[in-house]
TrEMBL record, chain A:
Job description of the protein: Part of the phosphoribosylformylglycinamidine synthase complex involved in the purines biosynthetic pathway. Catalyzes the ATP-dependent conversion of formylglycinamide ribonucleotide (FGAR) and glutamine to yield formylglycinamidine ribonucleotide (FGAM) and glutamate. The FGAM synthase complex is composed of three subunits. PurQ produces an ammonia molecule by converting glutamine to glutamate. PurL transfers the ammonia molecule to FGAR to form FGAM in an ATP-dependent manner.
InterPro entries linked: Class_I_gatase-like, PRibForGlyAmidine_synth_PurQ
Protein name: Phosphoribosylformylglycinamidine synthase subunit PurQ
EC number(s) stated in the UniProt entry for this protein: 6.3.5.3, 3.5.1.2
SUPFAM superfamilies in UniProt: Class I glutamine amidotransferase-like
Pathway(s) per entry: Purine metabolism; IMP biosynthesis via de novo pathway; 5-amino-1-(5-phospho-D-ribosyl)imidazole from N(2)-formyl-N(1)-(5-phospho-D-ribosyl)glycinamide: step 1/2
Keyword S-adenosyl-L-methionine carried by entry: no
Subunit-structure text: Part of the FGAM synthase complex composed of 1 PurL, 1 PurQ and 2 PurS subunits.
UniProtKB/TrEMBL annotation, chain B:
EC number annotated for this UniProt entry: 6.3.5.3
Main localisation: cytoplasm
Matches recorded under HAMAP family: PurS
PANTHER family per UniProt: PHOSPHORIBOSYLFORMYLGLYCINAMIDINE SYNTHASE SUBUNIT PURS
Gene that this sequence comes from: purS
Enzyme class name: ligase
UniProt xrefs under InterPro entries: PurS, PurS-like_sf
Pathway: Purine metabolism; IMP biosynthesis via de novo pathway; 5-amino-1-(5-phospho-D-ribosyl)imidazole from N(2)-formyl-N(1)-(5-phospho-D-ribosyl)glycinamide: step 1/2
Protein's name according to its UniProt entry: Phosphoribosylformylglycinamidine synthase subunit PurS
Species of origin: Cryobacterium sandaracinum
Length: 232, 89
């Protein structure tokens, strides 16, 4: 099982994503934005960071990178694709996911361990959760406010495509407290919080059991591995 | 060389936290007559040669697909910049 992680100029969390993939039991494959080659991977992660310095719009220039032609085509033929934070912004800019991300409503960057509710366990990346399960993973963004037209919001809600929702507080002004969404098929998922930062005891969010022991994020990666084993 | 200006603004119905922050600063300076500020982008595209309908059509397309994201922004103007005084062609 090989999962590609695309590095763009300004990516920050590509190494963390690769580490999460390895801890989940798959082989991470480093991919470069300037190539037209997915190296035969079975799934893809677009990592967080500040590609192209967030110039133009967050994720906008990255969404025009050479490799994105292959990413879009693979996503449209059903390959699992996860976009985290800047990766989520790229997926909306590439029109693989609807809506957009704008500057946090309070105007400040925010970094916190964020409680979420998994609304859909039907996607390729969330099959290992139970619908309604509450998890905590780190969130860190300046432009994480999810917005969409009223029609699009209604469709996302009605079609069960809200994947994760903020619980307890809305950290960035996202409409309907939306933290992540999927496409119709459930193979493309984008979310602002960072599952790859909550995958190993000692380095995750605090839990009631112990400091930094939270590993709720690993399930995103084990879910996609299980999904691919089932469909293999 | 002619320059084409493309102006992009955040959609009116969306929050514009940058504009709000500027408005807040104006308020703190006592500039209370300005009730709101909205903040957008201006692109200046310089080309070799002259501006014709084909160039303007290409700029319009770029404005709608690359320079703006129509989910969150509107292209509010595209115009050709007048040559500065004294410049000859």
């Amino acid at each position: 099982m090989r999962i590609g992680v695309v590095t763009f100029p300004g990516s920050l969390d590509d190494r963390d994503a690769a580490r999460a993939i390895r801890l989940a039991g798959a082989e991470p494959v480093a991919l470069w934005h300037g190539e037209h080659d997915l190296h035969g991977v079975d799934a893809l992660v677009l990592p967080g960071g500040f590609s192209y310095g967030d110039y133009l719009r967050c994720g906008a220039i990255a969404s025009l990178s050479p490799i994105m032609a292959e990413v879009i085509s693979a996503a449209n033929s059903g390959m699992p694709v996860l976009g985290v934070c800047n990766g989520f912004q790229m997926l909306t800019e590439a029109h693989l996911l609807e809506g957009g991300l704008i500057r946090n409503d309070h105007g400040s960057f925010i970094c916190r361990d964020q409680k979420l509710r998994v609304e859909s366990a039907l996607t390729d990346w969330t099959g290992g959760f139970a619908a309604g399960q509450e998890i905590t993973i780190p969130l860190k963004n300046g432009e994480g406010g999810f917005i969409a037209s009223a029609d699009t919001l209604e469709r996302l809600e009605g079609e069960g495509r809200v994947v994760v929702r903020y619980v307890g507080m809305n950290p960035n002004g996202s409409l309907n407290d939306i933290a992540g969404i999927s496409n119709m098929r459930g193979n493309v998922v984008g979310l602002m919080p960072h599952p790859e930062h909550a995958v190993e005891p000692g380095f995750g969010p605090d839990t009631v059991d112990a400091m930094r022991s939270g590993t709720d994020g690993i399930t995103f990666f084990t879910s996609v591995i299980e999904r691919m084993l089932v469909s293999a | 060389m002619p320059t084409i200006v493309v102006e992009v603004m955040p959609k009116a119905e969306l929050l514009d936290p940058q504009g709000k922050a500027v408005a807040g600063a104006l308020g703190r300076l006592g500039k209370t007559r300005f009730t709101s500020v909205r903040l957008g982008k201006r692109f200046e595209l310089t080309i070799d040669g002259h501006v014709d309908d084909a160039v303007l059509a290409e700029v319009q397309e770029l404005a709608d697909t690359v320079l703006s994201n129509t989910v969150i922004e509107d292209v509010i103007g595209i115009h050709v910049l007048e040559a500065p005084a004294g410049e000859t062609h």
